[in-house]
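Throughout this chapter, every protein is written as a compact record of paired, labelled lines. The reader may check this reading against the record printed directly beneath this paragraph:
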Amino acid sequence: MKTLIILTSINICATPVEHQTALVEGDYSHLDGICINSVFPGDNNCDEDEAKELIDLIDNAKFQYGDDLICGKVFDKVAFVSFVA
């Protein structure tokens, strides 16, 4: 099983908003909708374990710009996640 991770990086000091995608082995759909806020860490909408899991995933996955992975449709699950910096 593969999960398509769509990461929205929001930098409060810059525009535009950046979208990146990564295809990872396993089911990470439980991370769908999580927003990690590095500016105000207490404002995360997830528990600490989910935040750590997502940060590890962001650090280790090979993210790329563009829609190639979305158009390829070689995934079973999708998770939309956000990172505010």
